[in-house]
Amino acid sequence: ERPLGSPAGQHELFDRRRSAGLLAATGDLVAIVEDRGWPRSDWARAMAQVFDHPSRPDIAGGAVVCAVEEAWSRAVCFCDFGRYQPPFAAGPATWITDINVAYRREILAETQEVWADRYHETTLHWALQARGKTFRLSPEPIVEQHRPDLRLGPLLAERFYWGRLFAWTRVRSVGLGRRLLHALTSPLLPFLLFGRQLVMQWRKREQLGPFLASSPRVFLLLCAWCLGEAAGYLGSRP
């Protein structure tokens, strides 16, 4: 059993709590937020309105803003939520963050075997995409991310473990050759992910200055994540 003070133990606790919450929920729309992502006062109304769009999306998501101005807190926000930071236009999406997401109850029922034991954002969303379910992202339902007093050592351990877990969920059903291919290309990932973030922030403009100021920290966190990915592609379940 993993200690709750470790990144692995904390992540597993969060995953199992989310599964328990989804199983206990009774509404037609079932949403997930987290204690570090504080919904604004109009969040519930704004999220419900996303489902009222004529396209009738199956999954809805919103924006994430960084509420803490500390250097490491801002770097984490760029790493985890750069694509969800306003401004962006509402529209169809291929991915939605698990700290600001809502599902129609019936699609959760269809995929209960995927999330009932332990909720993984990646596993569930890939399963929903495979079933042809539609995602819609809107800048209106906003949560504010609060992660103050972050320290480098724990952050690097967290990033490594999260990258390892992501890799394991991605390749757990594929052969060794595919795993090796992903592991061998992992050293390129920090540059690819950083470049993707830079282009994204360049297009948005609003957060470009803060992103450039945070870029050394962002790149370091991405390196830790990608080391974890490489380990996850070659190892057993984290």
Write up this protein:
The chain is α+β, with helices and mostly antiparallel strands and about 240 residues long. It folds into two domains: about 5-145, Spore Coat Polysaccharide Biosynthesis Protein SpsA, Chain A, CATH 3.90.550; about 150-235, no CATH class. The chain has ten helices and six strands, in the order αββαβαββαααβαααα. Strands 1, 2, 3, 4, 5 and 6 form a six-stranded mixed sheet that branches. The chain starts with 6 loop residues before the first helix and ends with a helix. The model has no long low-confidence stretch (mean pLDDT about 90).
Task: Briefly say what this structure is.
The protein has 238 residues and is of the alpha+beta class.
- Supply the CATH architecture of the largest domain: Alpha-Beta Complex
Mean pLDDT: 92
So what's the CATH class of the largest domain? Alpha Beta
What's the main sheet like? Answer: 6 strands, mixed
Q: Approximately how much beta-strand content do the residues carry? A: 5-15%
Rg for CA atoms? 18 Å
Overall shape: it is globular
Give the helix/strand class.
Answer: alpha+beta
The parts where pLDDT drops under 50 for at least 5 residues are: none
What count of helical segments does DSSP give?
10
Q: How far apart, in Å, are the first and last alpha carbons?
A: 12 Å
CATH topology (level 3) name of the largest domain: Spore Coat Polysaccharide Biosynthesis Protein SpsA, Chain A
Helical content (DSSP H or I, runs of 4+):
55-70%
- The total number of structural domains is 2
Order of helices and strands: HEEHEHEEHHHEHHHH
Structure summary, number of beta strands: 6
CATH superfamily membership of the largest domain: Spore Coat Polysaccharide Biosynthesis Protein SpsA, Chain A
